[in-house]
Write a structure and sequence with these properties.
alpha/beta, ten-stranded parallel β-sheet, 10 helices
């Protein structure tokens, strides 16, 4: 058995050891804290933004959403610029008027688009249009890649030959030009499904008959007849002549949206082409939209439409899905009247009172 003196000596030794260990632990904690600070500084010094940690493929998909800001995005970093220039889909949409001051950039844009499907929006008077649409013969560069084409302007200086403009992938065509018939005769677009026309650039005289293949646009299922961006529309006689030429070309129309000011011309039972009413060619029609309806000024035209609906019913034709669109209008029994002749009726911003 140890003596009291030995026990006290052992306690003193253990206490010294405890003090040493506490000192070592304190030093270690301080060292850990210092090391964390060092590591944080190193991380901050070499940190990669979260967006730059994304795979290139995912970053390219994000850029496609905001491709209109590509010039700003390209100035952020070398990597972003490389991703932008190496993603052809970002360069698939071309607004010709964006390149007035730097025409050489248009050719660079086309080069970067590579083999991606193209969408071109242009004025026919644009000198730069020669880069993508040479006059003689009229042919779009990489026409085999064009999916969407929008043209406006005066076609009087253009020479179009029937069948001379093949667009094997073209799906959407928008025209606001002075004379659409020669251009439509020139275009060959077996995949075309959407056609939109507005008459803001109408010029006399307009070609009234189409001499080519009337069935080549049977693939078009969506037909739109609108006012120009400035609200311009064709006069009654001009519109009547044009529609008599156009409508037999679009016999596959399933969805039609029509500006209200053309309603009386298109649906009047006295408008005839080869003993057919204008809209009788739309044997596949399922949906009809009338845009810019004004209750205070469009009721007479609407009665013409109701008569046309009644005629369809009497002939045993299928009821249509009908939508009447305007921002500020009123209607009383309109909904009930239209519902009698249609499969469904939507009055968009047209208040209805029972």
């Amino acid at each position: 058995m140890k003596s009291l003196a030995d026990a006290r000596a052992e306690l003193a030794r253990l206490q010294r050891r405890e003090s040493e260990l506490r000192k070592e632990l304190s030093d270690a904690c301080e060292a850990v804290a210092e090391q964390k600070i060092v590591i944080d500084k190193l991380i901050k010094a070499s940190a990669i933004p979260y967006i730059d940690r994304l795979p290139t493929e995912l970053l390219a998909q994000i850029f496609l959403i905001v491709k209109d800001e590509r010039h700003i995005l390209a100035s952020v970093s070398r990597r972003w610029r490389a991703v932008l220039t190496d993603t052809p889909e970002i360069w698939g949409e071309i607004y010709i008027w964006d390149y007035y001051s730097c025409p050489w950039l248009l050719e660079l844009h086309l080069e970067r688009s590579r083999q991606t499907p193209l969408s071109i929006i242009a004025h026919l008077e644009d000198e730069l249009l020669d880069v993508v649409l040479p006059h003689e013969p009229p042919r779009i560069v990489a026409a085999e890649l064009l999916e969407e084409l929008s043209l406006d302007g005066n076609t009087s200086d253009w020479i179009f030959e029937a069948g001379s403009m093949p667009f094997p992938l073209l799906q959407r065509l928008t025209l606001d030009i002075s004379d659409p018939i020669p251009l439509l005769e020139a275009i060959v677009a077996p995949q075309l499904t959407y056609f939109r026309f507005s008459g803001g650039n109408y010029r006399e005289p307009m070609t009234e008959t189409m001499s080519g293949n009337w069935s080549k646009f049977n693939s078009v299922t969506h037909l739109s007849v609108a006012s120009s961006p400035y609200g311009d529309i064709l006069g009654e006689s001009d519109a009547s002549a044009l529609f008599k030429s156009l409508w037999p070309m679009f016999r596959g129309t399933r969805h039609a949206d029509i500006h209200v000011d053309y309603m009386s011309i298109m649906f009047c039972l006295y408008q005839m082409v080869d003993d057919h009413h204008l809209t009788d060619y739309w044997t596949c029609l399922e949906n009809l939209e009338i845009r810019d309806f004004k209750a205070h000024s469009s009721i007479e035209e609407l009665n013409i439409l109701v008569d046309w609906f009644a005629r369809r019913r009497d002939l045993g034709q299928q009821k249509l899905h009908f939508k009447l669109i305007h921002e500020h209008s009123t209607a009383d029994s309109l909904y009930q009247t239209l519902q009698e002749y249609c499969a469904s009726v939507v009055l968009d911003h047209v208040p209805v009172y029972p």
